[in-house]
UniProtKB/TrEMBL annotation, chains A, B, C, D:
GO biological process annotation, one example: aromatic amino acid family biosynthetic process
Residues that bind FMN: R125, S126, S127, N237, A238, G286, K301, P302, T303, S304, S305, R327
Cofactor comment: Reduced FMN (FMNH(2)).
Pathway where it operates: Metabolic intermediate biosynthesis; chorismate biosynthesis; chorismate from D-erythrose 4-phosphate and phosphoenolpyruvate: step 7/7
Molecular-function GO terms, alphabetical: chorismate synthase activity; FMN binding
The organism of origin for this protein: Altererythrobacter xiamenensis
CDD domains hit by this protein: Chorismate_synthase
Gene Ontology annotations for the cellular component aspect, listed alphabetically: cytosol
Protein name (database record): Chorismate synthase
Length: 362, 362, 362, 362
C-alpha cells in the first residue's frame, strides 16, 4: 500500500505530486490553544524554498502555505490542521522525455514495477517537492515543543567536512549552504558551482542538534527515539544513512572511549538534571532521551539527475541513454537541511505528547 | 507510551524482561497454510544463543521456543502465532548493585527518568535478551518470503574491517564472529579476547544482504523500504547507525560515481528483470525495491558494561562510580548479527504482504 | 488526541470545519490503475447535498469535488488521493448565539470540556458537514469493489417503519427520503413537514445492504467485519446504534429461530458458493463474510437543533435557554443515508485489500 | 490479515485458541507505578469462568492468570504486561465431528473460506474462550481509571426484560445471570433451564454503565467514544448490535423528547460539572464524554450450538445435518457480561491516556 502518514499520536499525512495543483499536510493530534498563523510557518518554507541562489534548482515556487482547517481565531482547536501549498511553476514540458525512459537513481523504474503507472512529471509523488508539506507540518510541531531548540546544518558537502572547531550557528543563515563554518562555506561555493556547471552533482551530510529535550522522551522497544528518528530521516528523498550520536564511529571505539560519564546536577541547577561529561550517545539511552542534546546525522546521496549520459532502459525495456536536463539541485542535501529539522521537530513533538500519557494514573 | 509492536500488516509484539519468567513474540498477520514447527525456528535461536564461545556472554540459556498458538496440524492458520521462550539462567544476585547506581551508557537513568521505576535485574525490558523474541518471529517471517535469501555478517569489528575481496559466505558459520573473511576472523580472535580479558568492549558493524527481493516492495512515502529498515535496525539494542547501499559513502560521491546504470534483461532471462551495472543504492529507489540485492549496514556501539570504573550517579542523585561485573558480551554486535537478519526478514515479509494488496482491482 | 483517520490499509483522513474555507479527505492506499475522475464522485455528493428539498437544511452547497492528487491521465496512481470540497454558503452570523450558550445534544459543551476552545460556527469540526468528505472517499472506495452493490435507505422515520413487503429499490431515488416504500414515503412527507413547521425534529433508522461480497472478508478478532462496520457507522454524526443482521431482534430469538441453514451450491452455480436458507446473521460469521448480503442498520437520533427552548448553560456556566434557529435538517437521518453507504463501501474496500494480503505464500 | 490488537495508546493483543496450550493478552502502554498482582485480576476471571452453574457450559477451567512481564516488585513498570492463562480442560474428542461439517451460525465455513484451514477444536480462534484474555486485560485497565465505576448486567434474556424500577446492583452477583432484578432472575431460571434441557439456546442483551467518567474523553472524528465502544463491543463473540444511550429508541423520539437539558453545577458541587436533567445520549456528545454516565447496550444472539439438527454442508460441499452436542452455554450473553465490562474498561482507559496527551502545551 501507499503509506503517507507519519507519527503515533501527532500524525501527519501528506498528499500531492510535483506537477499537480498543489500539495499539503494534514496534521492530526496537535494540542489545542496554541497560537498559530501562516506567519509562524512561512519562514521555514522560505528556508527550504527553491530558486533562492544559483546553488539550488531554479524552479520558482512561492511556497505560500494556507491554513485550511484546525485554527480558530488564531489558535489551534485540537482538530486536524490542513496546510496547503499551491504548485505554481510546474513546467511539464521539461519532463516529457522521462515519460519514456527510466532515469537511473530515480524512482521511475521502481514505481512502474510496483504500480504499473507513474506520474512522470517531475517525479510525481517521488519528487522532493513532497518535503514542502513536511516543512509546513514541522513548523507547527515546533510550537508544541517550545522548550526545544532545533538546529540543522550541512556538516560535509562533496566529501569536504566542516572544521568542528569553527562551528558558529550564526553562520548557518549567512550562506546558501546552511553551513556553520564560514571557511567551509567559501570552499563549497567553488565545489557546488563546478558541479553545477559540469551538470554533475554532489552528496552531503546534514547534522541536526536538538537541545532542551528533557530526559524521558521515547519509548521501548519499537518506538525508541533512535528508531523514530531513523525512520523519519530515511523517509526523506535521497537519504541513504542515519546516525545517532557518534553513529558508525561508535563502532570503532572501546567501551571506555564511548562512555558518557555522569555527575550529579551542579549546585544551583534549575532542573536537577545530572551533568554528562560526554555525549557519544547523542542524547539517548535505551531509546529514551537523557536530557543531553539529541544529535543525528543524515547522509544525502548526490542528486541523481546529471547531464552525463547514463545507460538505462525505456519503459518498454529497450536500451537507451539518459541525460537529465532541467532545473535540479546540484546538491539535494542542501535543501534537505530544513527538512531534517522539520522531521526532528515532528518526532520530538510526537514523543512529547506520548510521554504525557505515561505519567502515573490517579 | 510503551510501543512494543512492529510492522504494518505482519505485526509482531514482544513482551518480557531479562529476569522475568520468560519472553515472547506474538506474530499477527502471518498467512495461513505455511508449514511451521519449532524445528523451523530453533536453528535461528541457536545462532543467537548466548554462552556458545568465550567471545560472548557466559549466561547459559537453552532458548527453546514453544509455539503456543496459530499453528494447527503443522500449518499456520492465519491467527496469531505466539512464540514463547523461558528464561532459565537468570542470576538476580549478579545485578544487585545496579539497583542503586545508574550504569553509564545503559538505559537505567533514562528508564527511571521516564517511568519512575525500573526492573533493574539485567536491564529488565532494555536488555538485549528481548531480541530473542525477534529472532523467533524472524524465523517465521522467512517462511513467508521463500524467494528471498538473507545473509548477515560482521564486516567490521573494533575498527578492523574485513577484506571485501575475501568474502566467503561459507565462512560465516565457521567462526564465532559471523565473519565471512577467514583472515579477519583470525585477527578478531585476538582483538575480542584482549577486550574480554581487560574487561573492555568493542563495537562492530553488521552488514545484511537480501537477494531475491523482486522489484516493487516498499511504498511511498513514510513506508519506504529504507525507512522501514532504518526503524527496524535502530530498534535493536546498542545500534547507533544504519545505512542502505553505499550509505554515508554515497554522500562523498558525485552523481556520476553514484549512478547505477541499467540494461535490458539479458537474453534468456527468466523474469525479464533489467540488469543493473552497479548497486550503490542498495536495492531501493524512491523507497521501493528495484530487484537488486537489498543491502544495509548497522553500527553497534561497544558494550556499555565494562570493568573500568566510570563516573556516574546513584538513583538518589549522589556521585558514584560504576564498574560492571557480570556476564557480558565483549562485543554485542556479534550476537546482533542474527537479530539484524531477523529484522530484515520481518520488514521484507511485511512489505511483501502489503505489496500483494496493491495489485489492480477487478 | 484528535483521530481523524479511518481504515487499516485503505485509510482516509478528513479535515475541515463547517465554516472554514472547505473540507477534504485524503484517501491513502487506493490501488493503482483504476479509472477515476470527478464525474465518478459527484453523483454521490449530489445525493447527500443539502438544500435539495424542503425536508432538508436550506444551506446551499454546490459540493463540487476537486481531485487534488493521486490521479494521472484519468487513472489512480497508488498515491494519496486528496478530494477537496469548498465551503461556499457559510453564514457565520446565523451562529453567533451559540458562541455563548451550549446547545443541548450538540458537541458544544463536550468540545469545550475537552479542548478549552471550539470553533462554534456551525458546529465547527463536529458539524455533519464533515460527512461530505466521507461521501467523496466512499465514491472512490466503490471503484475498488466493483463486485459489490451497496444500497442504503431509510427504513423507519419518526417511528414509522416501512412495510418490508413493499420494498422497491427503484423508489429510493424517487422521493426526498431515500425511502424504498412508496406508501411510507407519502406518509413521511406529512411527518417531516409537520416537524419542520413546528421547529421540531425526528429520528430515523437507515438500513444498508451490500450484495456481492464474497465469503472471506473480515478478520479475527478486533477487525471483525461487524466491528469495523460498527465503528464506521457509529462515527457518523447523530448515530446512537448499529445492528448487523437481525441485531437486537436476534437477542429475542432461540437458536433454532436464529439459524441460517446452508445447502450445497445449486446445480450450475458459477462460484460454487453454498446456498443459505436465511440471513439472520446479516452476512457474517465469526466476523468474516459468508457470501450472503451484508446487512446493517444504523439509528440516527432526532436533530438536536429545535425551536423549543431547552434549558442549558452558557460557556461561563450560567443558566440559559437555547432555541436553535437556523437552517437545519428536521431529520438528519435522511441525509445520513448516502453517508452510511459511503462508510459501507470504505469498510468493504479496506477488507478486500486486507484479504488479498492473506492468500497463501509462495 | 488477522488483526488481534485493540486500542490506540493502551493496546492489547490477544493470542490463543480454545484447545491449544493456553491463551493470553499482551497489554502495552499501561502507565508505570500502578500496584498490580494476580489477585487484582483473578476475581474478574472468576466472574467469567465457565462451569459455575448449570446455566453455563460445563467445561471446567481454573482460568488462573499468570503475569509474565511488566510488573516489578508489585508495580507496573510501563513495559508490556503479558497475562497468560493455561487451557486445562480441552476435550478434543468432543469436537471431532465439526472437523467435517460446518456448524451453522459458527465461524467454521467463513474461516475455511478465508484461510483454507481451520483449527476446528472448539472453534479454535473463533471460540469465546478468547474473551478470557480480554477480561484479564480489562482488570488491569480498571486500575488505570480508578475514578470510574463500571457495572454491566443482563437487562433482557430470551426476550424477557428486567423491570427498570426493580434494578438493584446488589443483586447482580446474587444470581447466575448477572441480573439486577431479583424477580427477573427467578423467571430466567426457568427460561434458561428449559432451553438447556431442550438443547436450545437464548439470546440476551447486556447493559453496561460507567459512572465517574469526566467530561472530555473521546475524540473526533473516527475515535469518537461511541465509535470506539461500538467497535469494542461488536468484536465480542455472538454480538449483533450495540447502542449508546437510548440507541434505536432515540430514532423514535422527537428532538424535544430526546433533549438532555443542562443546568449549572449545583451549589457546593465539588467539580463544577453541570447538571444534566436527562441522559438520552448515554454520556456522550459529538463522540466526547459529557460527565454523565456512559451507557451502552449489547445484543448477543442465541448460542448457535443447538441439539436440533440444522441443514448444513461438509467441508467438501456435500449436504449434511448438524446437531451440536458438547458443553455449551445455553445463553452466551450471560457470560458475555464480564467481557462487556472489560471492553468498557479498556476503551475508557485508552481514552483517558489519550486525553492526557491533549492538554495545552508549555
Amino acid at each position: 500500500m501507499s503509506w503517507n502518514t507519519f507519527g503515533r499520536v501527532l500524525r501527519f499525512t501528506t498528499w500531492g505530486e510535483s506537477h499537480g495543483p498543489g500539495l499539503g499536510a494534514v496534521l492530526d493530534g496537535c494540542p489545542p490553544r496554541i497560537a498559530l498563523s501562516e506567519e509562524d510557518i512561512q519562514p521555514f518554507m522560505d528556508a527550504r524554498r527553491p530558486g533562492q541562489s544559483k546553488f539550488t534548482t531554479q524552479r520558482q515556487e512561492a511556497d505560500l502555505v494556507k491554513i485550511m482547517s484546525g485554527v480558530f481565531e488564531g489558535q489551534t482547536t485540537g482538530t486536524p490542521i490542513h496546510l496547503m501549498i499551491e504548485n505554481t511553476d510546474q513546467r511539464s514540458k521539461d519532463y516529457s522525455e522521462i515519460a519514456q525512459a527510466y532515469r537511473p537513481g530515480h524512482a521511475d523504474y521502481a514505481y512502474d514495477a510496483k504500480y504499473g503507472i507513474r506520474d512522470y512529471r517531475g517525479g510525481g509523488r517521488s519528487s522532493a517537492r513532497e518535503t514542502a508539506a513536511r516543512v509546513a507540518a514541522g513548523a507547527v510541531a515546533r510550537l508544541i515543543i517550545p522548550e526545544v531548540t532545533i538546529t540543522a546544518y550541512v556538516c560535509e558537502l562533496g566529501g569536504d567536512a566542516i572544521d568542528r572547531d569553527n562551528i558558529d550557528y550564526g553562520q548557518i543563515t549567512q550562506n546558501p549552504f546552511f553551513c556553520p563554518d564560514a571557511e567551509a562555506a567559501k570552499r563549497w561555493e567553488g565545489l557546488v558551482d563546478d558541479a553545477r556547471l559540469a551538470g554533475s552533482s554532489l552528496g552531503a551530510i546534514v547534522e541536526c542538534v536538538a537541545t532542551g529535550v528533557p530526559a524521558g522522551w521515547g519509548a521501548p522497544v519499537y518506538a525508541k527515539l533512535d528508531s523514530e528518528l531513523a525512520a523519519a530521516m530515511m523517509s526523506i528523498n535521497a537519504t541513504k544513512g542515519v546516525e545517532i550520536g557518534d553513529g558508525f564511529e561508535a563502532a570503532r571505539l572501546t567501551g571506555e572511549q564511548n562512555a558518557d560519564p555522569m555527575r550529579p546536577a551542579p549546585e544551583g541547577s534549575n532542573d536537577g538534571a545530572p551533568q554528562f561529561l560526554a555525549n557519544h550517545a547523542g542524547g539517548t539511552a535505551g531509546g529514551i532521551s537523557t536530557g543531553q542534546p539529541v544529535v543525528c546525522r543524515v547522509a544525502f546521496k548526490p542528486t541523481s539527475s546529471i547531464l552525463t549520459p547514463v545507460e538505462s532502459i525505456t519503459s518498454d525495456g529497450e536500451a537507451t541513454e539518459v541525460r537529465t536536463k532541467g532545473r535540479h539541485d546540484p546538491c539535494v542535501g542542501i535543501r534537505g537541511t530544513p527538512v531534517v529539522e522539520a522531521m526532528m521537530a515532528l518526532v520530538l513533538a510526537d514523543q512529547k505528547l506520548l510521554h504525557r500519557a505515561q505519567t502515573a494514573s490517579g
